[in-house]
Amino acid sequence: MKILVCISHVPDTTSKINFTEADTKFDTTGVQFVINPHDEYALTRAIWFKEKQGASITVVTVGNQSVEPTLRKCLAIGADDAIRVDAEPKEAFFVAEQLSAVVKQGAFDLVLAGRESLDYNGGMVPGFLAASLNYNFINACIGIEIEGNNATVTREIDGGSEILTTTLPLVVGGQKGLVEEKDLRIPNMRGIMMARKKPLNVVPAVDITPSSKTVSFEKPPLKSACKLIDANNVDELINLLHNEAKVI
Amino acid sequence: MSVLVFAETSEGRFKKIAFEATSYASKIAEMLQTNLVALSINASEPNQLSDYGAAKILNVKNAQLDNFNAKAYADVIKQAAESEGATVVIVDSSSNGLFLAPLVAYNLKAGLASNTVALPSSVAPFVVKRNAFSNKAFCFTELTTSVKVIGLAKNAFGVFENKVESSVEAFNPNLNETDFNITSKEVNKASGKVSIADADIVVSGGRGLKGPENWGMLEELAEVLGAATACSKPVADLDWRPHAEHVGQTGKPVAANLYIAIGISGAIQHLAGINASKVKVVINTDPEAPFFKAADYGIVGDAFEVVPQLVEKLKAFKQNNA
User: I need a surface site. Which of A214, A217, A221, B279 has the fewest CB within 10 A?
Assistant: First the structure.
């Protein structure tokens, strides 16, 4: 099985979110970048397939040179090789078409991606990619088993879960549950040394016209201070929720 | 030209978000000075959508579509959009809506704006405001394609009644065999419980509750309020509560009208997941807990004393306001 794991290089959750150039660009000054958490669950599940059932794992991301440490980390965790599509990840449609070209080139039969990235939270790339490839697609996956050409996938639904069966080739938008948090791996020294020797191929972008563009960003207005209510006066809380907030 | 909204049903009945999406779509049709067409699949009472501004309602009746199937549903929406000449298509952000939206957009060669929280700030160019950075910022996105698809964020717009004269028409899409390459084997849903996704109010507990045996009062509070119960990540990791109740960045997102956090300190990953909720209440013994910075109302106090009181007082309140 040839698995491609799509990786997003995103600011760590604790990062301060600021914008520059008249609120049109995300300010990366002092920001720590990490593997998008949902992608990390997907990658770890791919490694499980490799170890238990045999598979090759390629990781891919769209970005400039600054994303390479994130790809090296994926190699250190257990991916076999990495591809960087050399382009600014302008928007979801553009990125999905870049990934689609990579999938076609490498003839991958299972494509795992996080359900959304923690920066723009769009949740659009996995679906666009599946549509572009005409592969089967399941979103918000919390479990996947593969047997031969058949896949059994559990997806999260509102208020529960659903078990689905389908066949490869398949694109999955995954999240926590593909593996548990305790199964996530921290790269060890041997992995880090080996990662330096694993191939990281840079490929040029294909020519795609984006379907959207970012006009500007805006930070939410500063929140007013929390109204404190005496612990012995829950009537006041009920009153505020009813008459002021109007939520009960 | 028209605006098309997909109004989602569950077992034939419209979900609340279907009415929210229709209310939103009706305002967009007004902005574009065009008409609104609503599409439903196997709805038992499609004419309900006329209460929210849908003058023309297409209802698909097809037993093959009884179970949600993203590809098939996306195909139906695409065909309806084409036959109605829709230039804007609205879908919701339920788990099904999020699943099918990119498929609909791709098939229509349309740009997609997911997580949209408001009416377009302009229609030419077409610019919408979206949540980004886990609700720590908004992003204004211009869709540059001729057809646009909008994924309306949960609980972002509200439901507005706007009764209009309506006609319900049958719509018969051409379905392909390849639309059904994915088969549903089993659906597991907790019956009789309000799900976190559908809840207007969510009551959530953290490690401050000391153990799973203390969740009784939280469940009582949820029952009085008609709320869903949820928990913080450590609580799910300790197996005090099922993982399906874990809300936060890697858990379920919450966009409720009211979120009540009990014994939850408010780690940044937790707040990232619940920030889209409108009103936040925190009950915690530690006045320094970060949640107090994110909350609208707070009580510094022991949950074991405050929550039972709150349950009693709320019962009385509900009786008086029934």
Answer: A221
Q: Verify whether the Cβ–Cβ distance A176 to B251 is below 8 Å.
A: yes
Domains and CATH numbers, chain B: 2-180 (3.40.50.620), 201-320 (3.40.50.1220)
* A77: CATH: 3.40.50.620
Of chain B, the percentage scoring pLDDT greater than 90 comes to: 94
Tokens coding A66: 């600054």
Residue B191 has pLDDT above 80, yes or no: no
Do the beta carbons of residue B99 and residue B70 sit within 8 Å? Answer: yes
Q: Cβ(A22)–Cβ(A48) under 8 Å? A: no
- pTM for the predicted model, two decimal places: 0.95
Backbone φ, ψ for residue A121 (5° rounding): 55, 25
Indicate whether A181 pLDDT > 80: yes
β-pair partners for A114:
A174
Per-residue model confidence as pLDDT tens digits over B270-302: 999 999 999 999 999 999 999 999 999 999 999
Given a contact cutoff of 8 angstroms between Cβ atoms, the answer to whether B221 and B281 are in contact is no
* A53: confidence class by pLDDT, cuts 50, 70, 90: very high
Interface test with A, best of B69, B78, B114, B232 (most A CBs within 10 A): B114
The per-type count for chain B, helices as H runs and strands as E runs, is 8, 18
Q: What is the DSSP letter of A121?
A: -
Q: What single-letter DSSP state applies at residue A243? A: I
Closest CB to B181 among A120, A167, A234: A167
Q: Judging by beta carbons within 10 Å of its beta carbon (0-12, 13-18, 19+), is residue A167 exposed, middle or buried?
A: middle
Can you give the C-alpha Rg of chain B in angstroms?
Answer: 21
What's the pLDDT at A223? Answer: 84
